[in-house]
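Example (one chain per record):
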Amino acid sequence: METKLNLKIIESFGLPKAQWTPDYDDRGYTFTLPSGIKLNTFFVCNGEPTESDCLEGFDGWIYITTKEELEKLVKMSYEETLDWIEKNDDQFLREEFE
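Predicted structure:
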């Protein structure tokens, strides 16, 4: 059974966190994985509170919604993360990130 992400679960991983403000009415957090990859989640969207129910980033190549996916990503090195993305999306151009 998969556990859907929320801010409490994300924060329980103890990842470095910084506030992120992409524009005037959106707010979120950027979390940095041990591999150095940064993933974002919103807590205010269009000026309204919202659930932090996903993490996304790496130019859109990473979008996760479960605790189990985050557990896997936290354990991966940068190279292993590239392998994982490449395995799941044949349009990924690995050379752009090496």
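Caption: Residues 7-97 form one domain.
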